[in-house]
Amino acid sequence: MEPSNSAVNFLKKIQKFFKIKDSIARSLLSGFLGTIVMDMVNFTFWRLKRTEALHGHMAGSVFVNPFRTNQRKNFWLGQVTHQFTGAVLAIPFNYLLKKTGKDHLALKGAFFGTMTWEVVYGIGQKYGLFTTKPHLTKTHYAELLNHLVYGITTAHALVALSEPTTFPDNQSKTSQNTQSKKVQPIYSDTNYDGDISGNHII
């Protein structure tokens, strides 16, 4: 998870200097950054033999037979497809954050990453989208972690690259609403010539 923490720290550093107003461009770049960090974790797992394939192998198997994905040209075809998919998937997530706000950002990013794991990886495997099929359970767990990293990094990238007012902060709104609902004392300059029982003083 160290690459993910480094990416979040990097995004915090550039947050003050680099903003993108266009939502589509911001989403594509954020998804691209999230996919890069995801691939770094995937490569680490692959080197440690915690997973059976790289994402370039799996995505490349959409176009060619699995044994041909080891060829450099086919691997990079799969890698480009994988990067493009990760970038595009950030677009609906951007609109989700606009609707729900940027509070609990890591949790929302983790939810988004889990959904992409289930839809792209899980359903893709089940219905034969990828002809490269992992056989070990540890590969499925590794892919879940990869997609969690992707979702969390993409979420932080979207907020870091946006203007402060792009995504609402619901916690701040709740605090402001609570303050406004507090009972304020009412003062009047009108002289009252009665006692507290309501009887007029003669």
UniProtKB/TrEMBL annotation:
Name the record gives this protein: DUF1440 domain-containing protein
Entry-linked InterPro entries: DUF6789
Ranges for region Disordered: 167-188
Top-rank lineage group of the source organism: Bacteria
Taxonomic source organism: Desulfosporosinus hippei DSM 8344
Entry keyword set: Membrane, Transmembrane, Transmembrane helix
Annotated transmembrane regions: 28-48
